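Tokens as discussed.
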């Protein structure tokens, strides 16, 4: 007999839904769309031993309504949306999905970097808009990536994977800022640790891969964009709130910053009223960092293994 209640708010691959239905009393939402879904979700959480998912606003009030809850398995590496201290006080184990998403997310970072450098979004719009009627002019040229300088803000797992792509694949020099020094990466990638201002001043491409925290919220703004080189490309694949988005928009509009490639925003989904929607020098993706079939399946598998281990009284594989 199934005795444990699992609430999932995530899209899962079909075989996993079947396996979870066999093992648990499963309440499964693909996503919470409206108030009715949210109410049904809270009702299910009142009996839940475990939760697995992402993109749900977790509050202390929700925890108060979930007295049986023992494990929250986030299908993400970032855990900025959870009340971590309140969970700890209640003895709820929080787990995440590091490592399995590192390479796909770094690919997305490099995709944005390349798209912004070569203005791929704009060019695609030209072709589709039937504006490719003659060979392109200098006004449509992009900038080279190979041999340039790449600056990484937050040289953790994903930051290092982006840096490796730049160094090994494109012969780029690497600058980085990070809380702690990374001598082994400095050796392997000839990377140079600098302060944030120097990184913005002395890099052609800047990629943000630092987690959102009290220290990093609003870390980057106009004073940094004002230091950038004439054709600098700014990429953010971490969290929108690390950047002061109104200042980013203003700097893209007034030419202080040449162009940006963004996967994340202050508010998601991005509002249709956002100026980023129409700026030619902003390449905007809808938070697809880890969204490949292989990686999302691996993230779900890891989250499930974490749930099973915690409920069995064993340590989680990737506790936060
Ligand atoms: N766009 C997307 O879809 C995705 C986005 N992400 C985002 O990427 C983030 C990074 O993931 P991941 O690389 O696995 O995380 P890691 O923990 O491996 O790396 C984070 C790095 O940031 C550094 N850091 C943390 N705080 C500060 C600070 N205040 N100042 C300077 N450096 C700091 C850490 O330094 P130290 O080594 O000293 O601790 C560490 O090197 C996630 O938190 C998430 O927000 C992740 C996956 C997908
Ligand atoms: O944004 C995605 C994550 O895994 O964090």
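Sequence:
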């Amino acid at each position: 007999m199934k005795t444990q209640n699992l609430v999932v708010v995530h899209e899962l691959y079909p075989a996993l839904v079947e396996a979870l239905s066999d093992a648990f009393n499963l309440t499964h939402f693909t996503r919470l769309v409206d108030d009715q879904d949210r109410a049904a979700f809270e009702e299910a959480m009142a009996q839940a031993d475990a939760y697995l998912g992402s993109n749900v606003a977790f509050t202390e009030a929700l925890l108060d309504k979930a007295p049986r809850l023992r494990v929250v398995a986030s299908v993400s590496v970032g855990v900025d949306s959870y009340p971590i201290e309140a969970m700890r006080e209640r003895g709820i184990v929080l787990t995440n999905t590091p490592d399995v998403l590192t390479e796909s997310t770094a690919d997305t970072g490099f995709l944005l970097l390349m798209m912004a450098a070569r203005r791929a979004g704009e060019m695609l719009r030209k072709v589709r808009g039937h504006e490719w009627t003659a060979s392109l002019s200098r006004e449509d040229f992009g900038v080279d990536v190979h041999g340039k300088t790449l600056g990484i803000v937050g040289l953790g797992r994903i930051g290092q994977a982006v840096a490796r792509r730049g160094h090994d694949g494109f012969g780029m020099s690497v600058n980085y800022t990070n809380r702690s020094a990374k001598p082994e990466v400095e050796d392997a990638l000839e990377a140079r640790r600098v302060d944030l201002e120097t990184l913005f001043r002395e890099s052609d491409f800047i990629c943000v891969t630092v987690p959102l925290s009290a220290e990093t919220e609003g870390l980057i703004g106009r004073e940094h964009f004002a230091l950038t080189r004439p054709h600098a490309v700014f990429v953010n694949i971490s969290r929108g709130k690390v950047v002061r988005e109104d200042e980013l928009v203003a700097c893209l509009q007034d030419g202080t910053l040449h162009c940006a490639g963004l996967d994340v925003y202050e508010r998601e989904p991005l509002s249709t009223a956002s100026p980023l929607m129409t700026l030619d020098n902003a390449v905007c993706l809808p938070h697809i960092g880890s969204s490949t079939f292989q990686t999302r399946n691996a993230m779900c598998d890891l989250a499930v293994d974490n749930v099973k281990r915690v409920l069995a009284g064993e340590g989680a594989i990737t506790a936060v």
